[in-house]
Amino acid sequence: CGLYVWPCAVVLAQYLWFHRRALPGRRVLEIGAGVSLPGLVAAKCGAEVILSDSEELPQCLENCRKSCLMNDLPDVPVIGLTWGRVSPELLSLAPVDIILGSDVFFEPKDFEDILTTVYFLMEKNPHAQFWTTYQVRSADWSIEALLCKWKLKSIHVPLHSFNADKEHLASSSLPGRHTIEMMIISLARSDGT
Fold it and tell me: Sorting pLDDT into bands at 50, 70 and 90, what band is 178?
């Protein structure tokens, strides 16, 4: 739980750094933040950032706070948000422009809860985007049906388009296959596009 900087976080942080000129003044929420590398990079680049992790994992929330302090960002708010749960914290959030999530698509049982939360946030700001990196762990892994159900669309972002295809960024010494992918999820228009 949020104790390690996973390769997906490094790749998403690289995307944020590559697009740093677009971040000042943007409202950014990182979900499942863990040690919060992407959110902290966004904050250092001038975004108004809120970090979140499960309200049921106080140690993860504490790790977010410690990461903020270690990076001279003591004023970045850290809130408990549990995917799929409509909580007072979720309801009181101001509209965000960008939602960040690195390696949140880990357990298939959580996929719909994640997209439910993302959809709720996008209803507040229909122009918002969900920037997410994930590790391909199974050929069966797919959120296409859920995207359709929640009227969301995704665009694949090739890693080479933001210089993240380098082995030191997108790979890991951890065992197993480590194909990292990135996509941007947004609301589908009423005509389905």
Answer: low
Q: Write down the residue that tokens 């003591």 correspond to.
A: 74
Quickly count: other Cβ atoms within 10 Å of residue 126's Cβ: 10
- Extents of the domains making up the chain: 7-133+145-187
Angle at CA of residue 155, ends 149 and 156, nearest 5°: 120
Q: Which of 85, 83, 61, 184 is nearest to 134 (CA)?
A: 184
Token pair in block for residue 128:
């918002």
Which among 159, 163, 166, 154 has a CA at the least distance from the CA of 180? Answer: 159
CATH 3.40.50.1820 is the classification of domain 7-133+145-187: no
Structure token pair of residue 57: 């994992």
51-94 per-position pLDDT tens digit: 999 999 888 899 999 999 999 999 999 999 999 999 999 999 99
- How far out from the chain centre does Cα 160 lie? 19
Give the DSSP letter of residue 182.
E
Residue 182 main-chain phi, psi, to 5 deg: -130, 145
Instruction: Please say whether the beta carbons of 77 and 51 come within 8 A.
Output: yes
Place of tokens 């106080």: 58
